[in-house]
Task: structure prediction
Amino acid sequence: MQNFDLIIIGGGPIGLACGVEAKKAGLDYVILEKGTLTNSIFNYPVNMTFFSTSDRLEMANIPFMSVGNKPTRTEALEYYRRIFFHFDLNVNLYEGVETLSKMGDLFQIKTSKSSYQTKKIVLATGFYDLPNLMNVPGEDLPKVMHYYKEPWPFIGQKVLVVGGANSAVDAALECWRKGAEVSMVLLDDEVDQNVKYWVRPDIMNRIKEGAIKAYTKSKVKEISATEVIISTPDGEVKIANDFVLAMTGYKPNFGLLDQLGVQMSQDEKRQPCYDQYNQESNVPGVYLAGVVCGGLNTREFFIENSIVHAESIVSDIVGKMKVKSER
Result:
């Protein structure tokens, strides 16, 4: 069993930021990432542009250079790759965490490849790995996708996009522009007010002119190989369909929080309990960083306002280690 001062679970931007601070502080640490480096960003749509400007995504005084004011997915992947190599971070890729437990003052971690023991844990797992399911018949069909990459597979196809936030709007517009017959199912009477300001007028105009059919205040009821049944205010509608892009959002891995005994609020947000000063949860030695802090409220935390978590966490860990050694 390998022993560390600190194990960081999640190799996204916030996990990397924690690794940078841990290395600067001289901690014996490792970052465990179940996929590729910055796996969530890798799984973003190929043509995605960030809402944040590149300077707001910088960390550790390393400039983030992008062609435009707002960086693309590819530019972000390259930036965080450079962070990884510049600081020579200790990251184990393609190693998923399976079980977490605490024995005395130490945590035991079993992964898909090894076992570890550590004094402290940082959960920086993000929220992009677990999609919110529609829980309707036919959702498990191969034609139903909860992640969208690019429009090319949908040329000449009848595509239903479920959702009205940024990812749904991007998918709908890109597929329509590449020749798909696109329809949308929206829970509300229009697309989300928080859709990127330079994109929202585009989708609103496409819906208004009828280029993209929008079923408002509606839900998917059932999916079959060739059709989708939609519940609308005017009754059920059955439409021909080749693909369903279920852009219904994502949620944190509550399983890891539960294994460690992290308490969560009893309301619909399911927000984990933690100290906003040092990011430590109700379980001593377990720290939360990034969007996982918001529970199901995934719109409160972003890369740009979560990078500061890394310094707060490592500063607290080092301070407590110093106090313990002086006793």
